[in-house]
Every structure is written in C-alpha cells, then in structure tokens.
C-alpha cells in the first residue's frame, strides 16, 4: 500500500499515506470522519443561519462567531472531501497543482482562524471590563477591521510560504506520510537543504501562534480580575459562560497547532502528527459550533425561536390546504 506501484500517477503527482492504511479499521474510520464532516457543515451552517436571521444575535460577538463558522466550513472542506473520495475510489494521489492549492488554502484559513480567535478575546475583554464603552470600542467598523485583519494575516501567510514550499525539488519518492499537504510533511520529500527555510517557517508560525495567544492570555487575565470583583453572582455566571466557551475552543485549536509547529522535530512521530492534525483540522471545526451553542442560552433560545417559526409556517400551510 505504501509504494507507488498500482497507481496511475504522473511524475508530478504526490501520494498520501493517509489515515485509511489499515484494512481492519479503515471502514470504521471512514464512517466516523464522514459523520464528523457532515456534522461540522450542518452545525456551522445552522450557526450562521441563526446569527443572520435572529435579531437577538445581531451583536459583535456573534458577528465574529459567524465568520469563525464560515472559516471552519471552508477549512474542513479543503481537506476531508479529498480524503473521503480517495477512500471510495481506492486512490491516494493528488496532483502538484492540487497539493499547492490545498497547501495555500490550508495556511490561509488556519492563519485567519488563529488571528480571529485571538481578536475575539479582545471582544470579550471589552464586553466585561469596559461594558459602557462596548458599542464604541466594538462598533461595526471595528468588527469589519477584525475580520479583514484576520483574513489578511492568513492570506499573507499563504502567499509567503506556499510558493517557497512548493518550489523545492522533490525526490523520486513522492509519498507524503500524511492525509493532506501540510508543510512539514511535504518538506520531508525535498531533495534540497530546507534547514534555513524551515527555521524561517518556524519563526513565522511561532509569531502567528504567540501573538494571538498572548492577546488571549492578556485579555483573560484582565477578565478574570474583573469577574472576581463582581458583586453580582448572576453576572459572574454569565461572564464565565461566554468566556469558558471561547477558552475551550482556543485551548483545543492552539494546543494542537502548537504541538505541530512549535515542538522540535526530535519530538515528532508521523503517527502522532496525524493524530494532532486530525484534532485541529477535522475535530475542531465540528466542536466549535457545538461548544458555543450547547453552553450558550442566546444560541439555544434562537434555535427554539427558529423551530417555533418553522412549526408556525407548517401550521399555516396545512390550514391553507
């Protein structure tokens, strides 16, 4: 299964070792990943729909959250459909152009999510620590600046690193020991010396992780101080409810990404790398909307109102006939 024989490939195609390389568990793994993929699309789609249609969710926090859901839908769709199609067709190849496109989209979207999650902590900081100035500090213009800044940061990462990564000459063995075109796995196939570039890429990734993560830590340090001083028990509960959802998402996403991009090479093993990549490329896009909806009364309330509207429409339609 690991060799190139038996595949109709060109000299520029890559072959994924993938996740489905064990016959005894491949069918079950395919079913689980398919379920996660469709759940992620549905949950994020519902979240965007509720935020767009329910006036109670027309606030800066939910505006940012709708864009997080959009990024997650695009993010998981750049990786999982290719995996599932490969399994169904019995193929594991990807063209050089396809690998380049996947690498660029992955870097852009993951970068945008890094920055957006960091800036969402600023929103929570303003809401809890400066509630009277919240409408000014988190105006619609500021919200759009956060969205544009997040996408610009992610796009810059994609445009800078993708051309360099894919410009290296690759050896005869074009087997990527991964399930998508992630930079560290692709660079292992390069015939040239990549030490300098890997150092530059490491610095870029550290900055992209540490700058937003530092913003999260600084924001939540102030938030915890403010919440601790609150006299209202109900106010504390509400603050902890909204902040704990965001912190859970941040911990899951940043934790797995830090393992992948900040841990020295000597600590990495291909199988472990795949597990951590699954965590923040496949599981996180599904978990994000579930975490925000299950622990949030505003979202569950919007869901109940939407269902009530649907029942009302059905009742009116039935009476018309």
Description of the structure:
It is a single chain. The protein has 321 residues and is mostly helical. The protein contains eleven helices and three strands; from the N terminus they run βαααβαααβααααα. Strands 2-1-3 form a three-stranded mixed β-sheet. Helix 4 packs parallel to helix 8. The chain is globular, with a radius of gyration of 22 Å.
Q: What count of helical segments does DSSP give? A: 11
Secondary-structure class: mainly alpha
Q: What are the secondary-structure elements, in order, as H or E?
A: EHHHEHHHEHHHHH
Model regions low in confidence, pLDDT < 50 over at least 5 residues? 1-9
Shape: globular
Proportion in helices: over 70%
Mean pLDDT: 84
DSSP strand tally: 3
Distance between the termini: 60 Å
**How much of the polypeptide forms β-strand, as a percent range?**
under 5%
Radius of gyration: 22 Å
Summary keywords:
321 residues
How would you sum up this structure in a few lines?
The protein is mostly helical and 321 residues long. Helices cover 75% and strands 2% of the residues.
Structural topology:
Blueprint: E1 14-16, H1 23-53, H2 60-77, H3 80-89, E2 93-94, H4 96-129, H5 134-137, H6 140-165, E3 175-176, H7 183-187, H8 195-229, H9 233-262, H10 270-294, H11 297-320
Parallel strand pairs: 1-3
Antiparallel strand pairs: 1-2
């Amino acid at each position: 299964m690991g060799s190139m024989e038996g595949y109709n490939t060109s000299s520029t195609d890559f072959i994924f070792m993938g996740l489905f390389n064990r016959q005894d568990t491949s069918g079950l793994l395919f079913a689980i990943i398919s379920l996660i993929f469709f759940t992620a699309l549905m949950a994020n789609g519902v979240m965007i729909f509720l935020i767009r249609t329910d006036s109670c969710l027309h606030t800066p926090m939910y505006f940012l959250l709708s864009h997080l859901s959009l990024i997650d839908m695009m993010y998981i769709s750049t990786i999982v459909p290719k995996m599932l199609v490969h399994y169904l067709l019995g193929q594991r190849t990807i063209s050089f152009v396809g690998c380049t496109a996947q690498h660029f989209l992955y870097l852009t979207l993951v970068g945008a999510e890094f920055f957006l999650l960091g800036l969402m902590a600023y929103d929570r900081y303003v809401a809890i620590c400066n509630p009277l100035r919240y409408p000014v500090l988190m105006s619609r213009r500021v919200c759009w600046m956060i969205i544009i800044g997040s996408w610009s940061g992610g796009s810059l990462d994609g445009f800078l690193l993708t051309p360099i990564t894919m410009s290296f000459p690759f050896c005869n063995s074009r087997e990527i020991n991964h399930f998508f075109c992630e930079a560290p796995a692709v660079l292992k196939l390069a015939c040239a010396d990549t030490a300098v570039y890997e150092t530059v890429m490491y610095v870029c990734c550290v900055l992209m992780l540490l700058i937003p993560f530092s913003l999260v830590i600084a924001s939540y340090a102030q938030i915890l101080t403010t919440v601790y001083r609150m006299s209202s028990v109900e106010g504390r509960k509400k603050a902890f409810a909204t902040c704990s959802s965001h912190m859970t998402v941040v911990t899951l996403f940043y934790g797995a990404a830090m393992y992948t991009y900040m841990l020295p090479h000597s600590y990495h093993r291909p199988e472990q790398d795949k597990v951590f990549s699954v965590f923040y490329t496949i599981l996180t896009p599904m978990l994000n909307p579930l975490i925000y909806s299950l622990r949030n009364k505003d979202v569950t309330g919007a869901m109940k109102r939407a269902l009530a509207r649907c029942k009302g429409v059905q009742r009116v339609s039935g009476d018309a006939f």
